[in-house]
Specification:
The complex is a heterodimer of chains A (203) and B (76). Chain A is mostly helical and 203 residues long. In chain A, 66% of the residues lie in helices and 0% in strands. Chain A has two domains: 88 residues, Rna Polymerase Sigma Factor, Chain: A (Orthogonal Bundle), CATH 1.10.1740; 98 residues, Orthogonal Bundle (Arc Repressor Mutant, subunit A), CATH 1.10.10.10. With 76 residues, chain B is mostly helical. Chain B has one domain. Classes of the chains: A mainly alpha (203), B mainly alpha (76).
């Protein structure tokens, strides 16, 4: 009798999760293929260190495999995975000693709300050119640097929300902070990045 | 409503989390204040352009290495 060949690539995340629950290792490998580049990107952006990001990635997927039964399907599988990844990345950050970086958000001069919120008639509205601007390599580098400059607490929220698309509730749960705190960090992160882009484009 | 208050409300405004009366007041301000409209547009474009930049650098090369590690660690 012919063995049934499963085309794992054609399965959706929920179908793969069911197979992983039954210890189908090939289904797990498909999940690794599907999500390791994005998880690596998130880990790298949070930790800002390649070696740490690789550790985070390994811990994340080991945890996904071992704890698959704790995924209840209340959120998208990808959100669950990104939350695990962000938690391991944050653990790495906390384990590292930071040179003079303040834990207190309000004490960070770069994130002063008055400065970030300032705007004037002379400022360019570059929003309509955003797609074309994206093609400029120098601007992309500036944006990358600006994201790196964000204090950790802001960067993580920004990445989880604006890049990975998690809900405010999911981010709050991941970081153990309230939804208003998520929004406040997100808002300041966006203000900071907006200011950096505008500064570059108005130069 | 002052410009400073407008900026404070942008995140909630874009998420549709503002009470109807505050939203109305905010939109009335936008109708009168060009710098705030520009601020709203660039604020909202910021998320879009930053997402594109981060997503551009997908790292595929580590996937094979990771799979080897996981196979050793998890296969029984």
């Amino acid at each position: 009798m012919a063995t049934k060949v499963i085309d794992y690539k054609s399965l959706n995340d929920e179908e793969l999760v069911s197979l992983i629950r039954n210890k189908d290792y090939s289904a797990f490998e498909e999940i690794v293929d599907r999500y390791s580049p994005k998880a690596m990107r998130l880990a790298l952006k949070i930790t800002k260190n390649r070696e740490d990001a690789q550790d985070v990635l390994q811990d994340t997927f080991v945890s996904v495999y071992k704890n698959i039964d704790s995924f209840k399907g209340e959120s998208a599988f990808s959100s669950w995975l990104y939350r695990i990844c962000a938690n391991f990345a944050l653990m790495k950050l906390r384990g590292r000693r930071y040179d003079g970086q303040s834990d207190s958000l309000d004490e960070n001069p770069n994130m002063d709300i008055e400065t970030l919120a300032a705007h004037s008639h002379s400022e360019n509205d570059w929003s309509e050119r955003a797609d074309k601007l994206f093609l400029r390599k120098e601007l992309r580098q500036k944006i990358d640097q600006a994201i790196e400059k964000l204090p950790d607490e802001y960067r993580v929220v920004f990445l989880l929300k604006d890049v990975e698309g998690l809900s405010n509730e999911e981010i709050g749960k991941t970081l153990d902070i309230t939804v208003p705190a998520v929004k406040s960090r997100l808002h300041r992160a966006r203000l900071f990045l907006r200011k950096e882009i505008s500064k570059y484009l108005n130069e | 409503m002052r410009c400073k208050e407008v900026v404070e409300l942008l995140c909630d405004y874009l998420e549709g989390d503002l009470p109807e009366d505050v939203k109305k007041e905010l939109e009335e301000h936008f109708n009168m204040c060009k710098p705030c409209i520009k601020f709203l547009r660039t604020y909202s474009a910021t998320s879009k352009i930053c997402k594109q930049v981060v997503e551009e650098n997908l790292d595929e090369e580590c996937a094979e290495e990771l799979k080897k590690f996981l196979k050793t660690k998890l296969s029984t």
